[in-house]
Design brief:
By secondary structure, this protein is mainly β. It is 15% helix and 38% strand. Helix 1 packs antiparallel against helix 3 and helix 2 packs antiparallel against helix 3. The structure holds zinc ion. Zinc ion (ZN) binds next to loops.
């Protein structure tokens, strides 16, 4: 499948604390990639890459319970419009990185020993901040949608960032409409997006 790697990359976890989810995982009949809030499942008939087999995480249950689900279709234009309606925030980029102060190891305090006692003092190198250098948030002067806010799809409040991910998915697969299956009676249950016969996406709604 064209764009296989790009597609999986959209969904793998960027959180290095969850090392096991930072790469796609081979299951019996599918390859999945997940950041835990979103998941893509691609049937192996479309897959050409090699991925490590893993039982975990268990994902089959995420796809069940949709037999009597509601179905809505969204076009890419509709989804883009919903993204445009998100509140705007100032765009910024992160400059530099956090470097801990070597003198105090990030504590912000140093211990000075006297003959019979010791006393904590503010670190003279970092003036108590604990950092030698802090990353800076530099505003670009542009405004962008607040992708952390939710968009209502059916009865699901879906994070803007994930709606954007769906739009990217549609671009990579080359489709203009996507159907969403959802359970009317449970607003917090995951939504199932049918990308094609062999590709599905699961998105967890926001809990408010
Ligand atoms: Zn210091």
């Amino acid at each position: 499948m064209k764009n296989e790697q790009n597609l999986l990359d959209l969904y793998v976890s960027k959180n290095t604390n969850r090392e096991e989810y930072t790469k796609p995982i081979q299951k019996e009949n599918h390859v999945i990639a997940t950041c835990e809030s979103t998941l893509i499942r691609i049937h192996r008939s479309l897959i050409s890459g090699e991925y490590t087999f893993s039982e975990k995480p268990k994902t089959d249950h995420l796809f069940s319970g949709f037999d009597n689900a509601e179905i809505i279709e969204f076009s890419k234009d509709e989804l883009n419009k919903l993204i445009e309606e998100l509140p705007l925030i100032d765009e910024y980029f992160v400059h530099g990185k956090d470097i801990l102060c070597e003198e105090c190891n990030g504590d912000g305090e140093v211990t000075w020993e006297y003959k019979y006692h010791e006393k904590e003092f503010e670190c003279p190198e970092c003036y108590g901040s604990g950092y030698e250098q802090r990353q800076k948030y530099v505003e670009t002067g542009k405004q962008i949608p607040d992708y952390e806010k939710g968009v209502l799809l059916g009865n699901k409040l879906i994070k803007g960032r994930y709606v954007k991910r769906l739009i990217n998915t549609m671009d990579l697969v080359g489709i203009n409409t996507i159907s969403m299956k959802y359970n009317k009676n449970d607003v917090y249950k995951q939504a199932l997006f049918v990308v094609s016969e062999n590709i599905d996406v699961i998105i967890m709604p926001m809990i408010v």
